[in-house]
Specification:
By secondary structure, this protein is of the alpha/beta class. Helices cover 45% and strands 20% of the residues.
Length: 303
């Protein structure tokens, strides 16, 4: 069906339509369409602009949040090396604690320097780089704290008591502290300035005997070595040393009224290169897992 179109030059009512009228109609219609199109295009562009910018803004916001979360998370993690200066009597227990600590904190390495507490204290005060000091006696810790080289207050984490160590099987049949006063018995102890030496001195005093040792060692490891190698018949060590060397030596218990106890303090050092790891290691030693390891090696809890 054809569409009825009015004859050229006339409007639908039969009137004459001028050329200018005919031209104004289409032009007005074109202008309206153009304006409408521009408006639609503007809306579309605005929508596109809004749509494309929203994810970016959201992404930036998310990135900011992630960054903030990452910083907080990073601040809570530890890494690097933590250097621990520790008394020789802690060797076996701290080696195990160190391994467990590393497993609990991937990316952290624990390095130990074991020696007599007096020697370690001297090294620290002379500037040796270390993060943590674990002493076998408060006196040696005080050497460090009085020099201003400890951070915060040292905390006791264990105690230890003396015991006589003899050759495996006790061939000299040593039964009491008094037996060590026999000139025929070669006795070795720690030097008086070393915690195990102070314990030996107290034990001899408590027992009322005079013992003349053939050697005074700079740490308890030296006493253990001489006894287990047969270079000495007996030595005053800690209960933990006898336990750690059960296959190579025998222990002779000392009565409580003659024995002596030493406390083990631990502290972060003021010049610690890795203070975060130092604090975490100390916390681990004082915590349940650290205390379980220490107990398994014969240490008693702090008083």
């Amino acid at each position: 069906m054809r569409e009825n179109v009015p004859p050229s030059g006339r409007n639908g009512s039969g009137g004459v339509v001028s050329r200018s009228s005919r031209l104004r109609g289409p032009r007005r219609h074109i202008r309206i369409l153009a304006a409408t199109g521009a408006a639609v295009l503007g809306v579309a562009l605005a929508a596109c602009s809004s749509s494309s910018s929203s994810p970016a803004a959201s992404g930036a916001s998310s990135a900011g949040s992630a960054s903030a979360g990452g910083s907080a998370s990073a601040a809570g993690t530890i890494h690097g090396t933590v250097v621990v200066f520790a008394a020789t009597s802690l060797t076996e227990a701290f080696n195990k604690i160190g391994a467990q600590f590393e497993a609990a904190h991937p990316g952290v390495t624990v390095k130990f320097n074991y020696n007599g507490s007096s020697s370690l204290a001297t090294s620290i005060n002379q500037g040796a780089p270390a993060d943590v000091f674990a002493s076998a006696a408060p006196k040696n810790m005080e050497t460090v704290t009085s020099a201003g080289n400890a951070s915060g207050t040292p905390q006791d984490f264990a105690t230890n008591t003396g015991e006589i160590m003899v050759e495996k099987g006790n061939p000299k049949n040593i039964k009491t502290v008094s037996d060590l006063a026999n000139p025929a018995i070669k006795v070795v102890v720690c030097a008086p300035a070393v915690p195990c030496g102070a314990v030996a001195t107290a034990i001899f005093k408590n027992a009322g005997v005079t013992v003349k040792p053939v050697s005074e060692e700079q740490n308890v490891g030296g006493v253990v070595t001489k006894v287990t190698l047969g270079e000495a018949d007996a030595g005053i060590v800690y209960v933990t040393d006898v336990k750690a060397n059960e296959g190579k030596a025998t222990g002779v218990a000392i009565p409580a009224d003659q024995n002596d106890t030493t406390e083990y303090p631990i502290a972060e050092l003021k010049a610690a290169p890795n203070p975060s790891a130092a604090a975490a290691f100390i916390s681990y030693v004082l915590g349940t897992q650290g205390q379980q390891v220490l107990a398994s090696f014969g240490f008693q809890p702090p008083k």
